[in-house]
Amino acid sequence: MNTQGIALNVARNDIDWNQFLPLHYKRLIGFIKKYISNRNDIDDIAQTTCLEALRSWPSYAGQSRPETWFFGIALNIIRSYYRQHYRHLRVEPLSETIELTLSSGDDPFVNTLCHQQMQTAIRYLEKQPANISAMMEMIIDEGCYQDIALAQSIPVGTVRSRLSRTREALRQAIK
């Protein structure tokens, strides 16, 4: 069945979920991947979206196409995911990381230089505003620009420019 057929059935409030979900599930996964990088979380959010759509269908007002409504549910669940997962960012002391890094090298001069640069970087980052520190933590934890933008409710371009300025200032501080 095509999307138009599904939209026509909406007027009668009897959508065929056995056709609707398979038709849009692959797009749903792609949509969620734009915002979430963890595969397990992607699957969980997709399942939650489907369940929430099924649960909320009786209250669907028909003011938009079912697909738009469905992806709106997914976006709201993604926002909730970020509120839950990034409310209190996990911050681990970098001093342990420094010690592990330094103990792995053989050259004392290189170890000392690395130690000094890391201490300078830590002091610099500790002085940054909370939103910049959160961005840097998310990037270090292999987050992507889209994840950060969504978590902080700012455009992706703003994330890029702030991180670029922070990285350049950090390079200058380390020199």
Automatic annotation (TrEMBL):
<dbReference type="GO" id="GO:0016987">
    <property type="term" value="F:sigma factor activity"/>
</dbReference>
<keyword id="KW-0805">Transcription regulation</keyword>
<dbReference type="InterPro" id="IPR013324">
    <property type="entry name" value="RNA_pol_sigma_r3/r4-like"/>
</dbReference>
<dbReference type="InterPro" id="IPR014284">
    <property type="entry name" value="RNA_pol_sigma-70_dom"/>
</dbReference>
<dbReference type="InterPro" id="IPR039425">
    <property type="entry name" value="RNA_pol_sigma-70-like"/>
</dbReference>
<keyword id="KW-0731">Sigma factor</keyword>
<dbReference type="InterPro" id="IPR013325">
    <property type="entry name" value="RNA_pol_sigma_r2"/>
</dbReference>
<protein>
    <recommendedName>
        <fullName>RNA polymerase sigma factor</fullName>
    </recommendedName>
</protein>
<feature type="domain" description="RNA polymerase sigma-70 region 2">
    <location>
        <begin position="24"/>
        <end position="87"/>
    </location>
</feature>
<comment type="similarity">
    <text>Belongs to the sigma-70 factor family. ECF subfamily.</text>
</comment>
<dbReference type="InterPro" id="IPR036388">
    <property type="entry name" value="WH-like_DNA-bd_sf"/>
</dbReference>
<dbReference type="InterPro" id="IPR000838">
    <property type="entry name" value="RNA_pol_sigma70_ECF_CS"/>
</dbReference>
<keyword id="KW-0238">DNA-binding</keyword>
<dbReference type="Pfam" id="PF04542">
    <property type="entry name" value="Sigma70_r2"/>
</dbReference>
<dbReference type="GO" id="GO:0006352">
    <property type="term" value="P:DNA-templated transcription initiation"/>
</dbReference>
<dbReference type="InterPro" id="IPR007627">
    <property type="entry name" value="RNA_pol_sigma70_r2"/>
</dbReference>
<keyword id="KW-0804">Transcription</keyword>
<dbReference type="GO" id="GO:0003677">
    <property type="term" value="F:DNA binding"/>
</dbReference>
